[in-house]
């Protein structure tokens, strides 16, 4: 038997997993979102967050923002696989492209009375969350911020009657003059 | 220019004609009746009626791979489309340009669970390069032309166009191909010059170089194959081909090491393992090629040329990845290599070849042909020998016979070898041969198959008869699903679970029932005569050859093993059991 330990490939595979925010400019045509999602599920990639909306009605173009994680080789694959989809115009890795702004909006319903209800309002004030609906025993807060900020807000609301959450997922754009 | 208004069906036929399509492989049904009516009224495009939609796609693949053109399929909605899925997946895996027109229920019934309705674009999304559902007649002509562009450019692949019946019946404007340009899909064909220069410098400084080339070279075209041969000869480096690449470089050339991979030659795999610079050209580091990735070519620097960015760094990280069409990149490589007067160190190359000759000396493909039983390898070799004087195309099914054909039939030219590589589709061989023979009516088309594979699309015998396609089908009959049996023997303690062909038909009677000649052969002494007779018969023939039922396919890299731990089979008599849990879970 050859000394297989010594023959191990010299190319060290990077195995560290990192999180990337990828923006994809696509033709807004039927099935395009299914193509992107099918790519991720079919090849076993991770989707942590995904948002999509038309950004140019005249050109029928939508922007998909997907937050994913993987080793550098997997991230490279994801971008290459996205790029070769026929309706895809452009793929940009915002995490690598430089500093970027990431924002998410969440609607958070808290059902509570008494001290808990007041406490939830105080915390909402600290987080600059707005109450967009109120009844005698409930609030719906609207909060905008980074995903981390929203996570923190939700965590604090948990013991105060948190009963329902709706989040938009991340929208992201690079800072400065850089564009896709 | 005034718009020409035609019926939807007329637009489809006109677009096919303007795209240079001569033949369509298909099967009619309710949703595509308007198209079939249009086919009936014209003579420009020939329709070949297959007997199962899967076969239509394989036939189109055979047509495409043996001509370099796009293969076209026409099937109906629902079951017509779902039957085509295996063929589409096959074409996707092997990068074969195919357009598949599927009928669909009228737009107002889509989503209503109508008769013969299936969500064709949904079902085929992951098994096509791209697909379209035409809901607007204004988009019909554009979609047709775009589909040809998408199928045939970049890394080729299958494209489905789903055509609701009301679109076919209604009016639609026609656009010429020149009036349609694709907005997003325009693949890069020229490689980055600085990377090419860097790659050549790396190659020129190599002591143990190897060229590892695949189906991408053949997809790039005949000119790319010529350039590959020129480049290989200029560098003096050894070259190995993948299963899909066979024919891209002449097998008789002394620089050719044989096929690489699981059932590749010993010299080829050892050279891959020990090389110091590897250039992968149109090859995608498939698991059948690399074996255990942790031990793959451990001391090498790697260069990869591929038109598909996602093929680079997918399985194996490379040092230089050049995105571009193989033909264009090779052209630049040859120019730069000449201009810079690069040369691989002669002494180093000389001792590398000496090492390789040592591995060649193992004669890993050798076998002994006894007097009493026909060795399957021998059948391949004899067919090769006896067809040397004619233009011959080979198709195969999947299994041991496929590997033996790949190992023992020397392919000198591209486009002459049709096999299901990526997907490994049993039942590919005979329908693919249909497509090849339709494209090359005067050539000899031989389909090597096994007793199990042939049963998977046996209905195509009727198509052979109808169109008088003189295909020569050679069954290497060992009464087993041979490759399954081989793995059971090596990995599962010789427990031959369900791999024995208990009730095979009488292939002679079966051939006669379909209206052509059936022959058998079980005596080595009669083999040559049987092959000659088969080749002389003017019509389809099935030659059922009873071969050694114990023969296994060697050499072999067992799953999970590196290239330098091949089983040669000769010294072990093929009875080597593989003791590896890791190998057991791999396919």
UniProtKB/TrEMBL annotation, chain B:
GO terms for molecular function: acetolactate synthase activity; flavin adenine dinucleotide binding; magnesium ion binding; thiamine pyrophosphate binding. Residues 7-121 form the Thiamine pyrophosphate enzyme N-terminal TPP-binding domain. Gene3D superfamilies: 3.40.50.970, TPP-binding domain (3.40.50.1220). Residues 196-332 form the Thiamine pyrophosphate enzyme central domain. Binds 1 thiamine pyrophosphate per subunit. Binds 1 Mg(2+) ion per subunit. Keywords: Amino-acid biosynthesis, Branched-chain amino acid biosynthesis, FAD, Flavoprotein, Magnesium, Metal-binding, Thiamine pyrophosphate, Transferase. The keyword rRNA-binding does not apply. The keyword Amino-acid biosynthesis applies. Its cofactor is thiamine diphosphate; Mg(2+). It holds the Pfam family TPP_enzyme_C. It catalyses: 2 pyruvate + H(+) = (2S)-2-acetolactate + CO2. InterPro entries: Acetolactate_synth_lsu, AHAS_TPP, DHS-like_NAD/FAD-binding_dom, THDP-binding, Thiamin_PyroP_enz_cen_dom, Thiamin_PyroP_enz_TPP-bd_dom, TPP-bd_CS, TPP_enz. Pathway: Amino-acid biosynthesis; L-valine biosynthesis; L-valine from pyruvate: step 1/4; Amino-acid biosynthesis; L-isoleucine biosynthesis; L-isoleucine from 2-oxobutanoate: step 1/4. Residues 397-545 form the Thiamine pyrophosphate enzyme TPP-binding domain. GO terms for biological process: isoleucine biosynthetic process; L-valine biosynthetic process. Its EC number is 2.2.1.6. GO terms for cellular component: acetolactate synthase complex. Belongs to the TPP enzyme family. This is Acetolactate synthase. It comes from Thalassospira profundimaris.
